[in-house]
Amino acid sequence: MDQSSQERSALFAGEGSSTLALVIYLAVAILLMIADRRGGYLEGMHAYAARLNGPIYTLAEMPWLAGRTLREGMVQRSQLNEENRLLSQAMLRGELRISELERDLLEQQRLGGAVQLAERERLVGIPARVIDVDLDPYRHRVVVDRGSRHGVSAGAALIDGDGVVGQVIEVRPGNSLVMLLSDPGHGLPVVNARSGLRSVLNGAGQADRLAISSMPLSADLEVGDVLLSSGVGGRFPAGLPVATVTAVERSPGSAFGRASAKPLAGLDRVRELLVVAAPQGLGPWPSTQLGDASALQDAPSADAAEGAVVDGDEESSEPAAESEAAGDDLEADAGSADAGPQR
Amino acid sequence: MSPRSLEWRLFALAVLATVLLSLVRLPPVLAPMKPFWLGLLMIYVALEMPRVAGLGIAFVIGLWLDVLVGDLLGEHAMRLVILTHVVARFRFRIRFFPVGQQALAVFGLMLNDRILSLWVRLFAGDGWPDLSYWLSPVIAMMLWPWLFLVMDRLRMRGRQKPSTG
User: Fold this and answer.
1) Cα(A47)–Cα(A38) distance, integer angstroms
2) Do B91 and A46 touch (CB under 8 A)?
3) Which partner from A74, A301, A322, B131 sits 20 to 30 angstroms from B58, CA to CA?
4) How confident is the model at residue A226 (pLDDT cuts 50, 70, 90)?
5) CATH superfamily of A116-337
6) Cβ <8 Å between B85 and A141
7) Chain B contacts of A143, Cβ < 8 Å?
8) H helices within B2-74, ranges in order?
9) Which residues pair with A166 in a beta bridge?
10) Which residues are paired to A260 by β-bridges?
11) What tens digit of pLDDT does each residue of B129-147 get?
């Protein structure tokens, strides 16, 4: 039809399109997708290209920010006071809890068991905000406004007031890309707070449901149990609350049981977050699916990061330096504990 | 200024605008209705400004979108290339359709695009999306006449000054 039209310049601005060009472009696109998905070969390229994204995100966020500013300007003073009161109360409760924990820790140290574990694994929280851009409503990714410039590293955990939200999968200078717990590609090693049972919690593509897709029939798991991150694999801080179990299914016909859990954090409405810097020196988070699940099988002894203390309060003024220090300290043991299963 | 470079400028602006439109967050209720803005733009460009953009441009823009969205590198590139190619193939037919029929064609193209994207998702191991996933082509169809109108106006305005077509 139009193939024979007048103007035929370069491949780039060609009139119409030849089938050959189509085939070539498609082949390249498909190869790229496979390379990206399978090998994670393009990680570096991804991050490099994404450096240009900052200004675009800022522009795209503007209408939403303007709307929010407008709304905030109209909020009643009494409303603010009320909110302030509630927050102070919550903080006091938090302080109390911290002092309790510190007391327990001291006791433990006196008993001789925990060899300065607390000192070594003090983690740093970097406050971050979710950038108001919509990547794809059917994918469980968000962008936060903190990047390598602020001390964020790949693999860092994100928590909100209630629990784990997700994890940093790509760091850029001024922002980073986060995979939410609910992403089907996300697998997080967890431990049952009640029974100590370890398992892997997978995303199921829904904001309010996570799944344990295979566990032994005899596993000690009940509805209402709280799941904490177990720190197996070494990249994710241990002991952070993740989800509560909502259903356990053990059909006699199958060899494995399944369970569903509800994330404690509201994944679909998170705005203000804390980036909990992951122990450094363990290599990047592999983009392949269930990276941590394989670590779980290969390195059952990797308890190095157990019982970590989240400490966002005093150190947040100097996050970058602190995280360096924490990372260096950890490197020695955690590195030896699970050097194997990274790839 | 030559009409050619004017068209280029318009195209660049339109790409920027549509990229921003596709990134702007909508309230959760409206979020699934967001049309594939760049797809719509590429349909228009392949129909009315074929000298400006071919498969190569579609591919590059697609890659850029992939990086912006943090997705599988190549997914949007593939979708845009296919879209552009199909439109270019049937350009002379679609161009002379009345608006309503044209919108229907856009619906078909977008539906095809949705299926492609679903296909990629399934291959990549993601689950089936819910029904609202199929809303976006409908919205794209309803938006098409307006987009067409706006783009045509902009081009006319650009053309009037140098008086060439």
Assistant:
1) 17
2) no
3) B131
4) confident
5) Rod shape-determining protein MreC, domain 1 (2.40.10.340)
6) no
7) 70
8) 3-23, 37-48, 55-69
9) A158, A180
10) A211, A247
11) 778 888 889 999 999 999 9
